[in-house]
Amino acid sequence: MGDSMSDSLAPDSSAVDPSRVAAEPSDCFHCGLPVAEGSQYSVTIDGVARPMCCPGCEAVAGAIVAGGLDNFYRFRENSSERPETSSQDQRWQAYDLPQVQAEFVRDFSGSLHGVDTAEPLKVASLLVGGITCAACVWLIEKQLKAMPGVHRVSVNASTHRAQIVLDLSQVKLSELFAALTRIGYRPSPATAANNEQLIQQERRTAMRRLGVAGLGTMQVMMFAIALYFGGNKGIDVQFEQFFRWVSLIVATPVVCYAAQPFFAAAWRALRSGHLIMDVPVSLAIGLAYGASVYATVFDTGEVYFESVSMFTFFLLLGRFVEMRARHRAGLASGGLAQLLPLAALRRGEDGELESVPVAALAVGEHILLRPGDTVPVDGVVTEGASGVDESILTGESELQQKVSGSRVFAGSVNSDSSLTVRISAAGSGTRLSAIEKLVEQAQLDKPEQAALADRIAGRFIAAVLCIAVAAFVFWWQQDPGRAFWVALSVLVVTCPCALSLATPAALAAATLRLQQLGLLVAKGHVLETLPTVDRVIFDKTGTLTEGAPQLRVVTPLRDGVSQESARDIAAALEVENNHPLARAFRPWFGNRSASNLRAVTGQGVAGVCDGVEYRLGAPRFVGEICASGFEISTPAEPGQWLLLGDGSGPVAWLGLGDDMRPSATGAVHMLGEQGVAVELLSGDQSAEVPRLAGLAGIRNYQAGASPEQKLQQLRRLQSDGQRVLMIGDGINDVPVLSGADVSVAMMSAADLAQSRADAILLKGDLCALPRAFALAASSRKIIRQNLRWAILYNLLALPLAFLGLVPPWAAAIGMSLSSLLVVVNALRLSRWQPAA
């Protein structure tokens, strides 16, 4: 870092004025080194031409600005290092800077089989322009996986987003960007601004190409009609040749500009030794155009400029409609972070309000939310009362009433009146960011159905090329004049677009709809596995119940012990525990203090209070510190009972109550109607377990189950051939969540439980589970419909094209319609509604 910068930096790094970064006007704005007199290197940042000392700094700064990351200069605290001069493309060196990577690179929280690295792995989220099909995805993944330090690559063909798990000590991000550029793709950081820019650019470019193809097709068709129908009336040979030359002139922009994406994609695939569906498309367009040019120049044979133009137009039209459908359905959204505002009203210590960038907000500060404002951070309301729309997080359309002490979350919208909020989490620490990370994590897992479709599509293209050659040879022997055009039709009509789109389009639409219904999919296999699940296992506390236990009864068991002292000792023991039961003691935290606190999973808590060792939890656990031991029966009254004891014996019973979720009974009933068995496994040893099981309608239940016993029960069920879904929220549920075929964690669950779960229940409505089962069944049905249609279409179209019954223009229409059919069918899932 340049030392010349240190004296000029503002002490508050959260709002550094860009104009103050350079120590002197003659210093390089990027690295801080002196700029030679007469230097012409500069980059426009924040509307001002900033001086640069060399081409390297100019290239790096230009890449930062072009990538929409110019906030890097606004909030950096020191100058950047001067880029080294090397053979590597300097455009991408900016992305090796940690400050720049902070916006699109995060720590990898999962695990990789057989991978053991000294450095922690990272996940880079990129947008990749130029993707046209599933085979492009396959090509990108193969190329990047071959690089040292890249451990996993997952590319989503619908969103054009790439998730790359890598070791930055072995490979630089600039090397990944350069590798993608070399094979013809356009990488950029997956930020909200870049995603929106990519969508707009994709739409504008597609409309321009479609417009050129449409105009060219109409013009060429007019001349083609004159050639077809005028020829029978003895059209003058000179006019015929004139029409051919005009058609050549009009069709050339269609082929060279409108059809350019097909040629570019095919060339980069062939250069890498792979086949994608644009290969046969490019061959069809290029060969037909070349043959027509030859016929025009040498005045021999037939010309098919109208077929080439029409073919290109229908292909582009099909892709354009498919692209618009993806955008409308939200399948190409740039992430939830784009929901956040760019600025917020921060309240200073003197009460004055100032508008500051959201990126400059810090934990502990206060902000003002006016009616209609989107909440930019997580926080706690300190003043005011208002209704807040949290539908983006929970799927719940009703306003949630917030008063002083209520929590609000980034992405929700304030509705009624102003609120003052103390920030508890900002940026990547918010719940919205956590949800987005889970969505990105799900993209790392490619479902087997999608992977199978990709493999089939790749092999199918090779088969199509062979069949086209066979058709050409066959017709050359029968009718040489038709051989070329029949082979052309075979190439066009059998492109596996529909086959490649059948599965990913349906999975993307279903995943989006599940999130709207309140279930966030965090692992890619969930939708595939749900229809095969035979049994659902519920945890009790915080899952089947509300997770908001209340201390209802304190029964002293020893003379001289009051209800208040027993309660305060129990609260002191629970103060560091994150189990849901500990929430019942929050009102009394701080009344007494305890040391040497420890928690024993599934048993209770222990600690020393006023020099005495206490335990709180199951009677057996408490009895372990009593030398003489004791036997005590749990009170018969309803509730969850915890025993407080010390070395002298029992001290008091503490009875907790936790209401059952209103949706529990309905969820159990709906699962039963779907043929899914339901079971309750709880670590609670009280009579509350059978009581709640009876209320919910669950026949199979087990109380006092330790984490090991829960896992044993899961393994026993799986060994009997059952597929099991586990839903829980505590750390003691982590082993069984990890072992289940599908695991679901409550949104209020411990972070560790959420990290091991395949899906997150965004709100407390357990009925989202049976709805997810029904939607997964519909998703599987639609995927099978799409695959059957794609295969049936090719089985019917291929023989017809081989027999010469399908002209090239009709083949283009058929291929486009088949692709549109599977996309539209898949998008039905985005509007799926559960049965009444």
TrEMBL record:
The lineage of its organism: Bacteria, Pseudomonadati, Pseudomonadota, Gammaproteobacteria, Cellvibrionales. Keywords: ATP-binding, Cell membrane, Ion transport, Magnesium, Membrane, Metal-binding, Nucleotide-binding, Phosphoprotein, Translocase, Transmembrane, Transmembrane helix, Transport. One of its GO terms (cellular component) is plasma membrane. Residues 122-188 form the HMA domain. Its main location: membrane. This is ATPase. One of its GO terms (molecular function) is P-type divalent copper transporter activity. It is a multi-pass membrane protein.
